[in-house]
Amino acid sequence: MTESTETPAAAAPEKTPTENGTTETPPEETPEKATEEKEKETPPPKEMRAVVLTGFGGLKTVKILKKPEPTLAEGEVLIRVKACGLNFQDLIVRQGAIDSPPKTPFILGFECAGEIEQVGEGVTNFKVGDQVVALPEYRAWAELAAVPAQYVYALPEGMSALDAVAITTNYVVAYLLLFEMANLTPGKSLLVHSAGGGVGQAVAQLSKTVENVTVFGVCSKSKHEALKANNNNIDHLLERGSDYTSEVRKVTPDGVDIVLDCLCGEECNRGYSLLKPMGRYILYGSSNIVTGETKSFFSAARAWWQVDKVSPIKLFDENKSLAGLNLRHLLFQHGRADTVRRAVERVFALWRDGKVKPIVDSTWALEDVGEAMQKMHDRKNIGKLVLDPSLEPKPKPATPAKGKAGKEKKPAKESSEEKKDKETKDEEKKMENGDKNESKEKEKEKESS
Known about the structure:
Blueprint: E1 16-17, E2 23-24, H1 31-41, E3 47-53, E4 62-68, E5 76-86, H2 88-95, E6 106-107, E7 112-119, E8 131-134, E9 144-148, E10 152-154, H3 161-181, E11 189-193, H4 198-207, E12 214-219, H5 224-229, E13 236-239, H6 244-251, E14 256-261, H7 266-274, E15 275-283, H8 297-305, H9 312-318, E16 321-324, H10 327-332, H11 337-352, E17 360-364, H12 369-377, E18 384-387, H13 416-448
Parallel strand pairs: 11-12, 11-14, 12-13, 14-15, 15-16, 17-18
Antiparallel strand pairs: 1-2, 3-4, 3-6, 5-7, 5-9, 5-18, 7-8, 8-10
Helix pairs in contact: 3-4, 3-11
């Protein structure tokens, strides 16, 4: 006797009686139907407004779009964003002139502040409701931002989100430049470029926490009056584009102890030439490569070509130092988040003691980010430019109004040039018509003859 290997038949679906006494077999559930039902049960993902770079280039590539709200990964916190910081680095990213940019489209921004809404698994130093500022690598300019906790910093009591984005990046960069790299001590002198910008103002304020420090600031002539009226802590204002090295030597013939350069290009050579023995030149930006609205290979090549190549032997002979600071690399490539956190804590302590006060140039709605970028590109800001997701955008120019019954109003009067152009065209048409009439008359004459 052999054992059967056949599998038992599936039980037939139960038949349900109907009103007239007959039985009815229920329809079988197909995989397609099950999927459809699941999709109906699953609500659509929630969306948020975000500043998205759709392609590298000009201002038109920056769009305000609806994006899915971020989901938390392990070690992250979700921040309801109240303010975003605009930095020159964002302009360089937009043009695609930064190293290793992500593929477009992506959410812009390296700085935001707000309130924690969710805490991811493994996060123990933050809780829901904490007021924080964050320095993520991109994705900061949105209504919500998911950020690894190591790049998030608790705000001291009384600090608003607006002040937080005005102080964190700018003053941390300034602090690292002055106290970690330049070793600023009493009696020294320094020169800082873009003195009217966010970092320039931070350098001026922090340098005055040390006794008897002389500050030379280089910026556009148009900013000088506003800076003087604002008690800007800069001892000597110098005009950008002028022979400022001669002006510095009139005050201090030996030069300065520290040069802080965010421009690059030919300013590197001028800055190095101003250094005293034991002086230090530090590059912390390269804004000279941003000359137009879009990326220019010529500008980048020129900035590189204009820099003299200084050998270590020359530094040895002249007792001078060259250094550089890139905050983004320090955080995300070199793994020095602890160094940055210590700098943030010291800057916040100085703010709490009233020794530094951030300067906000202006606040913009997310939809007006293009105008804010243009203002920074034109070097017209004094202090920080801030984006506020809660602000309403500026009203757009009105479209041509319509008259009664939906009829469009009469067009505006033509200009004199338009009238002349129209008259000339009318004359040409008349001449053409005249020529045609003459030729027709001649043909009639020939036929009659």
